[in-house]
Amino acid sequence: MSAASDQDQVELMLKKTGCIELHYKVQECIAETGDWRACQDKVKEFRACMQKYVEQQTQKYAHVK
User: Fold this and answer.
1) Number of domains forming the structure of the chain
2) What angle do CA 52, 28, 15 make, to 5 degrees?
3) What pTM does this model have?
4) What is the span of the domain harbouring residue 50?
5) What is the predicted pLDDT for the residue at 61?
6) What is the DSSP letter of 2?
């Protein structure tokens, strides 16, 4: 699997979560600042979005065993 197809898979997964725009904001911030630590507000927003998605999926499939 190539790096490009790996990236495509990540993007597809992030699109399903509804958090892809926040992911892009984190990437842009890191590219601009060169320091992920300077981007903590964006990282926290992205993390919260992903956590919400996980919780929704957990509830959605809670009855499935």
Assistant:
1) 1
2) 40
3) 0.81
4) 4-63
5) 86
6) -
